[in-house]
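Anyone up for a design puzzle?
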């Protein structure tokens, strides 16, 4: 996303804020502030016909939030990767894997997936992002998603195991020897502020904890796999990638589970 290491994917932010009770016309601006951040105002391409209150063609994210938050809805985010749809409906699996994220929404108008397409501009010193959300009609995604990402309790347990795997992998591969810069930045993640400043204020502590752990694991994976040329040989590069792939998968599923009203959730966040 070209943001700080512990910034949340836009789809996760949109899902969490859309799920807030009573997120109607009043809190729309809070949702926009959280999701858009420093981006240019987000645009939305909607399907012809099925979103009440939105004209066919191009709308704004404010229009979309207002439409989806005007009545009962169920919301979740998915974070697919190449070869791993991770709960993204088949009709949007390709675009969602390319984007690395999508929002799933069920409202009175039907079931939808919104996939953000990000265009970067500017320089490394003054980066900018133009984001267009492409909205697609999809089949009912709620039950299949639980089977794909699991429950929040399962995600938290898997994160604990994943952290142990990541630690073992980095120790075995001796990251500190061939990537001292990465080792230092990985260690610094422990004291990096989490994303709670942009989370909805009513989000329960367990979700906040799972989100923070998952973001740190993803940042560790990104740092540890950033430069294959730093490995002593191709075998080490392959070992590193294999060892950390499952760790990233667990983190992505945990972030999705933290947005999803699973069956064991005492506060299903249905509105």
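Challenge accepted. My sequence:
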């Amino acid at each position: 996303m070209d943001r700080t290491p512990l910034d949340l994917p836009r789809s996760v932010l949109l899902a969490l804020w859309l799920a807030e009770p009573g997120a109607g016309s009043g809190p729309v601006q809070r949702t926009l502030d959280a999701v858009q951040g420093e981006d240019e105002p987000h645009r939305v391409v909607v399907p012809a016909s099925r979103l009440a209150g939105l004209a066919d063609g191009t709308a704004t994210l404010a229009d979309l939030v207002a439409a989806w938050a005007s009545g009962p809805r169920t919301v979740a985010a998915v974070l697919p990767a190449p070869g791993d749809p991770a709960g993204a409906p088949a009709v949007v699996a390709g675009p969602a894997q390319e984007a690395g994220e999508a929002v799933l929404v069920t409202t009175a108008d039907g079931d939808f997936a919104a996939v953000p397409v990000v265009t970067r501009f500017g320089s490394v010193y003054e980066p900018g992002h133009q984001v267009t959300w492409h909205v697609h009609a999809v089949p009912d995604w709620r039950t299949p998603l639980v089977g794909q990402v699991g429950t929040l309790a399962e995600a938290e347990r898997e994160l604990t195991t994943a952290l142990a795997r990541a630690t073992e992998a980095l120790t075995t591969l001796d990251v500190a020897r061939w990537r001292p810069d990465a080792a230092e930045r990985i260690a610094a993640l422990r004291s990096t502020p989490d994303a709670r400043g942009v989370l909805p204020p009513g989000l329960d502590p367990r979700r906040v904890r799972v989100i923070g752990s998952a973001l740190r694991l993803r940042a560790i994976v990104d740092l540890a796999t950033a430069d294959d040329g730093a490995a002593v040989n191709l075998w080490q590069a392959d070992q590193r990638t294999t060892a950390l792939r499952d760790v990233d998968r667990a983190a992505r599923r945990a972030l999705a589970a933290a947005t999803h009203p699973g069956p064991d959730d005492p506060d299903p966040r249905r509105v």
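A detail worth pointing out: Residues 152-259 form one domain.
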